[in-house]
Amino acid sequence: MGTDALAQAIDELVVEGASLYGDAESVTRLVHELSRLESFTTCAVAQFDASGDWAQDGARNATAWIAAMCRIPRTMARRFVRRGRMLRRLPVTAGAWEEGSIAAPHVDLMIGLAREATETVLARDEAMLVSQAKGLRFKQFAQTVAYWDQLADPDGTEEAAESRRARRDVYLEASIDGMYLGKMTLDPISGSIVSGELERIEHEMFVADWAKAREEAGARPTVSDLSRTPAQRRADALVEMATRSALVGTDAPRPAPLFSVLVDWPTLSGRVCELAEGIVLAPGELVEWLGSAELERAVMGPKGRIEVGTTRRLFSGATRRAVELRDRECRHPLCDVTGCRCQADHIVPWSQGGATTQENGRLLCGFHNRLRNQRPPPQRE
């Protein structure tokens, strides 16, 4: 009866049409209710798993039965079953999911913390972590969980980091028709190095493509006027990376990654170790890079200031770097573009007497910096 009522309610929504629910409030409510439905479905799967009814049809386990009968990938079925089993050990997480205040990805992060080495500490801190999940953006919550995991089980996180690096793999082979097909799996530090250089060269190509489009299409070209798609530029950038590598002499210095370690007194007794992209690292992951990496020290004054002068029009040098280290990403509350891809913007515009100082600076991505000229961006709490 209950599932029939659910199906009828969904049918009524479909008849009304999604266009009636395309406003911000309705979208928020729909996602909220979807989380509640996922929670209920997971609990039902857990009951089905425990009942053993799946064996009556000759299935080896609940995962196999769900994958076959519901015609979904086995990995998806396995995720349903695992969530249902693990939530028995996470009552606060289960309750928050049931009320729709967290979603399935939050649940998966919490499940990842539940193991023998962290059992006692997790029982103590589960409510605190769930409250963080309710208030933080998902990326920030993921960082919180990673740091909690390091403190709760430092040996385990170092071992996990070593295992993560051991999974690195690159596959590139010619297909029958001569096209090269491949796959790449890199650990966070290696991936950041490769991704950063690939993105830098791709941006060079984008600038060149845009300039060419302006010459051919006039002063206001569109993306459709560009000669290459983003995917094609990335492919060409990868080839350019290999070409430039072949041209570098054996005596030339290797490009060194830059690690920025931010430490003030409150964090001195804690742990801050992550890449510019916000990926949390175990401290041991840095060890092999210390001989080749560039280390940057940012010294914050009493008010957290690093200045090179207040008369410059543009943010540059130490002032730009200080803003970048402080903000980490675009300050628009609906954006998470990393700092290295953002522009430093005056809070009080230069034309209105705003100084080029850290206090009057903030990071905005290109899109939100341009949008700011149309209306002030909302302030992030």
Give the gist of this structure.
The chain has 381 residues and is mainly alpha-helical. The chain is built from 14 helices and 6 strands.
Describe the structure.
This protein is mainly α. It has a domain at 2-152. The protein has helices at residues 2-16, 24-51, 62-69, 74-86, 91-98, 104-113, 119-135, 138-152, 154-166, 188-217, 230-247, 265-268, 317-327, 366-372; strands at 169-174, 180-185, 258-261, 294-297, 343-346, 361-364. The strands form three sheets. The chain has a two-stranded antiparallel ribbon with strand order 1-2. A hairpin with a 5-residue loop joins strand 1 (169-174) and strand 2 (180-185). Helix 8 packs across helix 9. The model is unreliable at 307-311 (pLDDT under 50).
* Poorly predicted runs: 307-311
Mean pLDDT: 84
* Tally of alpha and pi helices: 14
Rg, nearest Å: 25 Å
What can be said about the biggest beta sheet? 2 strands, antiparallel
Q: How many strand elements?
A: 6
Strands of the largest sheet, in order across it?
Answer: 1-2
Gap from first CA to last CA: 45 Å
Which structural class matches the secondary elements? mainly alpha
Strand fraction: 5-15%
What's the helix-strand series?
Answer: HHHHHHHHHEEHHEHEHEEH
Gross morphology is: globular
Helix proportion range? 40-55%
